[in-house]
Amino acid sequence: MKNALKHIIAAALLVPVAAAAQQPIVPRETPLASPYQRYTTYQISLRYGVFQPVGSLADFTGDVANRNFAVAGEWVMPRTNLSFGGQFSNQFFSDRLPRQVYRLASGADISAVQSRSFQMRSLLATAKYHFADVTARLRPYAQVGAGVAFVEYGQYLGNLEADANNSFRFGAQAALGTRFVFRREGGLGLDAQVAYHYVPYNYAMVSNPSAVGVWVGVFYRWW
């Protein structure tokens, strides 16, 4: 009787072991990669800028310009840390000189406040190299851009136009910046960059104008 009981207990213990041995081994599922790593994604940025004119442009306008904005769109590559796109920017520099007497081409003298303005509207193709993975919340980058700029030069004595010139020129930009996304897999974030803009333009008091400053704004990305 004791031997029979031992056999029954042994059989009861071996049944679940044998059943477990017959079950197929299923590997643990690995989490899917972020869609920002799997697909080419898209990003649009809106920026406000403050710029200091450099060289002859500083002599002509002098003041720091705070009437600047930029709109940019780009394709973000998933596995190369590169992105490509385009940017439209508007930069406006101006200055007002104290009232004094000026002699006109006609020989007449006029007492007036001289106003000066210089505006660059640029449409550039851009390329970025990012120093962190596309899923990083903080993603520093280097950017270059090249394209066309529409330049407007103006001098006024009171309401009288003293000199003006408008023309299309080549435009270029170099920048170092960073992007910060509010949530790791989110679409909305902040974007800031230090940028240098250059236009090979020569007219009157302005020669090869350039400016250095800061762009700060927001971006939205999606896939």
Structural class: mainly beta
Largest sheet: 8 strands, antiparallel, barrel
| SSE series | HHEHEEEEEEEEEEE
Radius of gyration of CA atoms, rounded to a whole number: 32 Å
How many strands in all? Answer: 12
Question: Residue share in helices?
Answer: 10-25%
Tell me the distance between the termini: 73 Å
Written description of the protein model:
There is one protein chain. By secondary structure, the chain is mainly β. 13% of the residues lie in helices and 61% in strands. It has three helices and twelve strands; from the N terminus they run H-H-E-H-E-E-E-E-E-E-E-E-E-E-E. The strands form three sheets. Strands 1-2-3-6-7-8-9-12 form an eight-stranded antiparallel barrel. It has a two-stranded antiparallel sheet with strand order 4-5. Strands 10-11 form a two-stranded antiparallel sheet. Strand 4 (100-103) and strand 5 form a beta hairpin. The protein starts with a helix and ends with a strand. The relative contact order is 0.19. Residues 8-13 have low confidence and may be disordered.
Outline the fold blueprint:
Elements: H1 2-22, H2 35-38, E1 41-54, H3 56-60, E2 65-76, E3 82-96, E4 100-103, E5 109-112, E6 114-130, E7 138-157, E8 160-181, E9 188-198, E10 202-203, E11 206-207, E12 210-222
Antiparallel strand pairs: 1-2, 1-12, 2-3, 3-6, 4-5, 6-7, 7-8, 8-9, 9-12, 10-11
